[in-house]
Amino acid sequence: MEHRVVAFAAASRACVTLLALATSAIVTPYDTSSHLQVGASPLAALSNWDGVYFTHIALHGYDFEHFHAFFPLYPLLVRWLARLLPLQPASAILASGWFVSNVSFVLSALFLYRLGRVVLQDEAVARRAAYLFCVAPSSIFMSAVYSESLMCLLSFSGLYFLARHAEAPKPRRAFRDLVYCSLLFGAASATRSNGILLSSMVPYCPSLFQRFGGEVSGNASMEDRSWCAEVMPNFSAMYMFIQSEYWNVGLFRYYELKQIPNFLLAAPIIVLSLHALQGKATSGLTIYGRLVVGYFLLYTVLGSVLFPSFYPWT
């Protein structure tokens, strides 16, 4: 059954990508930030929103403070792969980013299926979970120049080896699976901030100061950013400061009157989820399952149409 999951995942990525590219060729972009950076490449439609930052980091590195909100593993992989492509730097970065994201997604679906088989001991449920993952409302982000697909791959594969470690018949295999799990969780924490939660203890060595030597005059005045003094007790101080300073991210800050339309968009899946919690997963939930699949497909199409043109929809 694994080949069916892989084929379905690959087909879903092809459909999302083709729909996004077709839309970008027809609809005038709401914002042209991505085109200013990488030119008129068709794949520029897949580097909108956070993709602008990932593309810039892959091309030029961390030029500005707020870029540090985006963790380095994904743009580094994109940059290394781009060097192998016989294209202009910007086009190579876009092609590489699309390739890394979509291959990671297909492998994510495969490892989610394997994880489901190990944990649930039910092949049918594991397969359906993988299929639903392929048509999730966030599908467009999984095919764009975003780190979501890589994060899913590292998370699902790490959890798979952790689950297999618990059932390993031999100590040597159990140790090997635990090593794989640790390496994958470590890589996940270098991909997105929430990857740190996958491990109970992740080594993180913040760099507090750098000596500039003769490059900085002795009488030059430098003012530290506010997060510098907080790094020692709080290793995530820089990340938390950037999220708050540049994107107003914080506890309950999202709950504003201007966000009411977004809550209305989320209302259907919230209602469906609450309905599912009222009963057991029996054949009586067939209608519920159809509603979920319909909602997923609707948002997959909606995201694939609006994301390439930079229209706000989430």
UniProtKB/TrEMBL annotation:
It comes from the Eukaryota. Pfam families: Mannosyl_trans2. The chain crosses the membrane at residues 92-113, 140-162, 260-277, 289-311. One of its GO terms (cellular component) is endoplasmic reticulum membrane. Keywords: Endoplasmic reticulum, Glycosyltransferase, GPI-anchor biosynthesis, Membrane, Transferase, Transmembrane, Transmembrane helix. GO terms for biological process: GPI anchor biosynthetic process. Pathway: Glycolipid biosynthesis; glycosylphosphatidylinositol-anchor biosynthesis. It is a multi-pass membrane protein. The keyword Ubl conjugation does not apply. Mannosyltransferase involved in glycosylphosphatidylinositol-anchor biosynthesis. This is GPI mannosyltransferase 2.
